[in-house]
Amino acid sequence: SSNDPNKIEINNVENLKEVIIKTKPDVAVDFTIAPATEKNSLICVENGIRCVIGTTALSQEFLDKFEDEIKRNHCPAVISPNMAPGVNIIFKMASILTKYLADWDIEVIESHHHRKADSPSGTALVIANTICDTLGCDPEETLKFGRSKGPNKREVGAKNEIGVHAIRAGDIVGDHTILFAGRGERIELKHQAHSRDGFASGAIQAIKFIANQQENKIFDMKKVLNL
């Protein structure tokens, strides 16, 4: 093996099960697209391979089926829209600040490269849902995705409305900002990914965690990082 990226061997595989039988991996890591992940991760778990999944936009139908297969095959997994340790601390901080600033307006803004297919990002959705959970409000009723041209008066206070906004431009790795705005003041909680090193670091921690995990369930990075 080598740490030199120029010496990494990449194989185009059409039959995942054959590769699993041949290589006998302990853990499979998947950062691809939802249709591929939903197919391949089930194959992995059915063959006793634990999974670390960073793919976003996974369907609830898949997640329910995947959890059933995890229990049936005694094969736990980690799923997180963002493996970066700093982002997962942001999740926790968002909840803490919301408890103290529940009467303020709260907006979530995320920026990514122009090739990112889904919007808003899975990370932004976790942030927004975390805020809703903290406030005890229904995301379906509270979250407002973007604002169109024309009259668009905002409902005051986070319990009434939380705006979620997506920017797609250039080669932005990933920025997430939570804006808490009160009367005459505001607080911005921000995470910026300057490279993908943070995601890789978190993924390695997730691999080590799930390789030794005995409980058959889906874990998130909060559990991996003991937050």
TrEMBL record:
**Taxonomic classification:** unclassified sequences, metagenomes, ecological metagenomes
Pathway the protein takes part in: Amino-acid biosynthesis; L-lysine biosynthesis via DAP pathway; (S)-tetrahydrodipicolinate from L-aspartate: step 4/4
Family the entry assigns: Belongs to the DapB family.
Enzymatic reactions: (S)-2,3,4,5-tetrahydrodipicolinate + NAD(+) + H2O = (2S,4S)-4-hydroxy-2,3,4,5-tetrahydrodipicolinate + NADH + H(+); (S)-2,3,4,5-tetrahydrodipicolinate + NADP(+) + H2O = (2S,4S)-4-hydroxy-2,3,4,5-tetrahydrodipicolinate + NADPH + H(+)
SUPFAM superfamilies linked to this entry: Glyceraldehyde-3-phosphate dehydrogenase-like, C-terminal domain, NAD(P)-binding Rossmann-fold domains
- Which GO biological process categories is it annotated with? diaminopimelate biosynthetic process; lysine biosynthetic process via diaminopimelate
* Domain Dihydrodipicolinate reductase C-terminal: from-to ranges: 86-225
- Whether Plastid counts among this entry's keywords is no
Keyword list, A-Z: Amino-acid biosynthesis, Cytoplasm, Diaminopimelate biosynthesis, Lysine biosynthesis, NAD, NADP, Oxidoreductase
Q: Which GO terms describe its molecular function?
A: 4-hydroxy-tetrahydrodipicolinate reductase
Q: Which Gene3D superfamilies match?
A: Dihydrodipicolinate Reductase, domain 2 (3.30.360.10), NAD(P)-binding Rossmann-like Domain (3.40.50.720)
Write the protein's name.
4-hydroxy-tetrahydrodipicolinate reductase
Sequence ranges assigned to domain Dihydrodipicolinate reductase N-terminal in this UniProt record: 8-83
UniProt keyword Chloroplast, yes or no: no
Class in the EC hierarchy, top level: oxidoreductase
Regions annotated as coiled coil: none
E.C. number, please?
1.17.1.8
| Pfam families in alphabetical order | DapB_C, DapB_N
